[in-house]
Amino acid sequence: MSIPKEPRQLMINIMYLVLTALLALNVSAEVFNAFKLVDKGLVKSNKALDESMEPLPTAIRDGAKTRPSLATYAERIDPIQTKADEISTFLIGVVTTMIEDGGERGGFVEDRENPGTFTDDLKKAKDYDVTTRTLIDPNDPDGGLGNEIKAKLEAFRDSMMTYIDDEDKAAFQKEVAVQIDDDTWKKKGKASWAHMNFDHMPLQAVIPLFNKYINDVKSTEAAALKYLANKVGAGGTTVVLDQYTVVSAPEKSYIIKGEKYKTDIFLSAAAGADSNTGITYAVNGRRINAKDGVAKFEETATKNGVRKYTATASLTDPVTGETKSFKKEFEYEVGERSVTVSASKMNVFYIGVDNPVEVSAAGVASNQIKVSMSGKGGGKIKPAGNGGYTVNVTTPTKKGEYAEINVSAPGLNDKKIFRVKRIPDPVPKLSKSRGGAMGSGEFKIQPGVFPVLENFDFDAKCNIVGFRLVRVPKRQDPIVSVNRGGKYTQESKGLIQKAKPSDKFFFEDIKCKCPGDPAPRDLGGMVFNIR
After folding, report:
1. What sign for the dihedral angle of Cα 209, 215, 217, 223?
2. CA 69, CA 236: separation in Å to the nearest integer?
3. Which residue from 246, 318, 462, 465 could staple onto 514, CB 3.0 to 4.6 Å apart?
4. What is the DSSP string of 157-212?
5. What's the CA gap between 307 and 371, in Å, rounded?
6. What is the per-residue pLDDT for 335?
């Protein structure tokens, strides 16, 4: 995946990598709680955007009254807001449909302490069937509703450009938050953009994506209204509005440690440099320069968690000479890159089989991750595609010894440890039995002894090397046959066919070899009483 220079598009790519990588793991409750926290942050950011845009339409209309030529900018307010509201409502409707899918099985978990009220926990948080069924149409190569969402986002993005003057389109293009990545899904060989983003995604992971799309729509709407506000104020010589608010429009509200937090801070009724309004800006008391009525504030993220700052805009009325100051507090959240390594089947590596492993690093492009093995166990690791790897080991680890998977990428260096074990002993069986009473008819038709790996998730096959078969007829001497392999030899078959009620058969010294075994292992014996 190519890493774009534009921070907004970078965040979209990072979020996609995080979600798809996590889905390859046995996702824990902590990870789903993290999805909820991200979603809450996006909802809060969307609300802040709505509040910041609230005074803009009035400011634009009042500013447009100063000159007839500015009326065209006021006329663009309603269609911009209508288109933004339509696609936001559509996206919210899709989310609501998925949450409520299944009737009483859907929706939110009821609060046990307060019956009749509900928590913010989804009943179907881990359900990926509802998202796939709703957003991916297997009979539609274009992706169904998922790609309809893509088309609507693209149409909204293109429509916003029609409300920008031709000479300003190139500059405004950089302010458009709605961006669609059409390269990654093609390079990965996915059927469509929708398949890459929604196929087999848990509901709890999809909801933040939808709120991110809504955030992009609102950010683009805010940028368009801000553009109109700047246009109607560019030629003014007086301050027409009497109510103001400071607006901070961050490029993104969640960033990775080491990145720069960037935001546009402006007074909602701000005008260009020739407006003669005398607007100055400061953050935490430190003055910052403005260009065309907009001051850019940036700082390097050095600590994790929520960071707050106070923005101040001071305005001098060109008519009265009076200076007024407006303050508002803003916040953003700083995260840190982290590594997750998960054995796909269990937290141990087994000798003689392919051990699948999933590796992901939150906030890091997959092509930047480097994976290697060290430590005990004689392990080797090789890529298996789609963020997966295959581990092969040769030697069991002792107490306190571990095989190590090392993961490195820009800004992080981590390792995860695993134990190495032999494949567990299989259970020898005759038919479905390990011993006891068996009818002579059933006993005689068995082809031999075979090993069963019980409760073992890997595709491994063990083979019987041999055993000692002893027939003890009633009131007669024992008869012995040494059998090579799991199937009966001719000598052993002869003993088996002589089985009569009250006979005893002993299967002794059963040996087998499993993948990776340097020598046969002893499985003990079995005793059968013939009925």
Report:
1. negative
2. 12
3. 462
4. HHHHHTTS-GGGHHHHHTT-------SHHHHTT-S-HHHHHHTT--HHHHHHHHHH
5. 33
6. 62
pTM above 0.70, yes or no: no
Distance between alpha carbon 81 and the CA centroid of its chain, in Å? 31
Cα torsion through 219, 225, 226, 231, rounded to 10: 150
The count of other CB atoms within 10 Å of the CB of residue 176 is 20
Residue 418: strand pairing partners: 403
Rg (CA), the chain: 34
pLDDT at 2: 39
Residue 367 per-residue DSSP state: G
Burial tier of 106 (Cβ tally within 10 Å: 0-12, 13-18, 19+): middle
What length does the chain have? 531
The residue assigned the tokens 């990145």 is 259
- Distance CA(274)–CA(262), nearest Å, equals 26
Q: Are 329 and 308 in contact (CB under 8 A)?
A: yes
Say how far apart CA 350 and CA 174 lie, in whole Å: 52
Of 377, 346, 360, which is closest to residue 414 (Cα–Cα)?
360
Look-up of token digits 């006021």? 74
pLDDT tens for 298-319 read: 888 777 667 788 888 887 755 4
Handedness of CA 372, 377, 383, 385 (dihedral sign): negative
CA distance 486 to 490: 13
For residue 403 the two structure tokens come to: 């095989």
**Cβ-proximal residues to 183 (8 Å cutoff; 6+ apart), any chain:** 1, 2
Tokens 């107490």 -> residue: 399
Which among 447, 449, 442 is positioned nearest to 531, based on CA atoms? Answer: 442
Type of residue at 3: I
Tell me the per-residue pLDDT of 395-417, one tens digit each, with 9 for 90 and over: 999 999 999 999 888 777 888 89
Distance between CA 154 and CA 180 in Å, rounded?
7
Give dist(CA 450, CA 432) in Å, integer. 10
What would the pLDDT profile of 147-204 be if each residue is shown by its tens digit?
888 888 999 999 999 999 999 989 898 888 888 888 888 888 887 888 887 777 787 7
